Amino acid sequence: MSVQFPSNVKKLLDNKQIAYTMTMYADDKDPQPQDYRDQHLRDQSVARSILLEDSEGKLLALIPGDCMLDLQRLRQLTQRTLAPVSPREWEKFTRSKNLDAIPAIPNIAGLTTVIDERLVNGGKSVLLDSGKSPHLLQVDNQALAELMENKALCLDIAISIADVEQSCRNPGGDMKDISNAVSNFTQLRIKQRLEDTLELPPLPQTAQRIIKLRVDPNADISDLSEIVETDPSLAAQVVSWASSPYYSAPGKIRSIHDAIVRVLGFDMVLNLALGIALSRTLEIPKSGPYGIQPYWRSAVYTAAIMEALVTAIPRQYRPGFGLAYLSGLLHNFGFLILADVFPPHFDRLCDTWNANPHVSHQVVEKQLLGVNRAQLAAWLMESWHMPEEVVVALRHQNDPSYQGEHAVYANLLYIAQALLQKYNMGSGPTVYLSNELLARVHLERSGLDETVSSIMNSKMELENIAGELAG
Q1: Does domain 7-160 bear CATH number 3.90.960.10?
Q2: I want to staple 302 with a disulfide (CB 3.0 to 4.6 A). Which of 52, 253, 328, 444 is the partner?
Q3: Which of 34-38, 91-95, 127-131 has the highest mean pLDDT?
Q4: CB 83: neighbour CB atoms within 10 A?
Q5: Torsion over CA of 390, 396, 400 and 403, rounded to 10 degrees?
Q6: pLDDT digits (tens, 9 = 90+) for 38-82
């Protein structure tokens, strides 16, 4: 693959007589490095840029690729109310220059720049994102100083992603983290709100009945139909799901019984109804990029990918289809908890997510709150006596190395979200799926694209389902 080095960047460096070396991602496994640029920038600690603004104007922050921007600290140190520019404005800037990202070059385009001190003090040379994959710029300390021109501020504004991730992988300390969050937020005046939540939101009656039905060996279609039909909204959503062109059911679906027998099956309807009932337990913003529509969109697509992945696994190795599907539907349940528990600080979370699109949301949450959505979701699911497979899936869905009991559900969730991220339908950076991970769950890399394509071919139908669930 050959990608031309951006001429506008080259011209800028040459005009300033900056000594540099053009290099590329150090990669021996990925034939399309532009698909995983975030991962490459992190692996090589390449300086990356983040564009922010406030009433005083725009500011460019440069941080190492293996770090996240500490937005709160940047605001404190600069005494400015900075927030990330909108995705539309960022895209306008990069598209006009034919770039993938804003080059990590101090003072580029006359932008006021703050550079993290790790980049200045890290060694004899530093790698900078050129803004065009797969090219990087390597400059020495003197060249970097010349680029800064005594104008760029050098401050401590970054946090190691790996350090936060390490604390995320401590399941034994989940309850301690949640309790600490209660204590820490006392000063933020939401201690009572957290304590109320820690007493557990009531489990919906419909969900209670479905959970009991799940463990009843004598349960049949009529029992499930009766439960779902007592909740008119839930019944309408299940019938609508079964009637969707996604399932291509012959004839009209007239009842829950019809949906079970002719289209979805007992296990699917049971888990679908349970997922919908649980997700209606907590409040979520009605609009915006972190509102109810994106939540259900993510849930529907992830459940569909989980369904397709289980089908792609050889029969003798397949995990429970229904539990895999339910894990996909509930994979982002922790977000509902965050939105419901931390509304006074939800804007702060959103700003930091937006400022760090190269970092998983869970890492940002752990840094800001001391607890993340995976921990909260697993704790609540366990308190509600949900199946252990679902608890494990939600808790460890961001850890591709997890190999404990029921690991296949967590591993499949990680894979499903990674596949969606490649189609710009997930959150956080795109990640490379290792051969070891795929072998562990008995999936072939060669079949993954086909699996996702089969889902994307039904995009319109899935969007309609998500829209109806969002109400």
Answers
A1: yes
A2: 328
A3: 127-131
A4: 17
A5: -80
A6: 888 888 899 999 999 999 999 999 999 999 999 999 999 999 999
Whether 52 and 83 have beta carbons less than 8 Å apart is answered as yes
What is the residue whose two structure tokens read 């989940």? 174
CA nearest to 106, candidates 57, 159, 153, 173: 153
> What angle (nearest 5°) sits at the alpha carbon of residue 414, between those of residues 411 and 418?
140
Where in the sequence of the chain do the CATH 1.10.3210.10 domains occur?
169-199+282-470
Helix-strand-coil split of the chain, %, nearest 5: 55, 10, 35
Ranges assigned E (strand) in 384-442: none
Question: Has residue 26 got a pLDDT over 80?
Answer: no
> What are the tokens at 149?
């021109």
Of 31, 180, 34, which is closest to residue 101 (Cα–Cα)? 34
Q: Which residue has the tokens 């994979």?
A: 331
Cβ-proximal residues to 413 (8 Å cutoff; 6+ apart), any chain? 302, 306, 327, 328, 331, 393, 394, 397
CA distance 276 to 298: 13
Please, which pLDDT band fits residue 178 given cuts at 50, 70 and 90?
A: low
pLDDT, residue 32, reads: 58
Between CA 45 and CA 119 the distance in angstroms is 9
Residues 9, 135 contacting (CB under 8 angstroms): no
Least confident of 4-8, 64-68, 260-264, 272-276: 4-8
* pLDDT the model gives residue 200: 54
Q: Rounded to the nearest 5°, which phi and psi values hold at 375?
A: -65, -45
Identify the sign of the CA torsion 189, 193, 198, 199.
positive
Q: Kindly give the residue spans of alpha helices, DSSP state H, lying in 280-342.
A: 292-312, 321-329, 333-341
pTM score = 0.82
Backbone phi, psi, residue 320, to 5°: -60, 120
- Bridge partners, residue 86, by sequence: none
User: How many Å separate Cα 304 from the centre of its chain?
Assistant: 17
CATH superfamily of 169-199+282-470: Hypothetical protein af1432 (1.10.3210.10)
Domain with CATH 3.90.960.10 in the chain: 7-160
Q: Which two tokens stand for residue 94?
A: 């990069």
Beta strand 153-155 with 112-116 is parallel
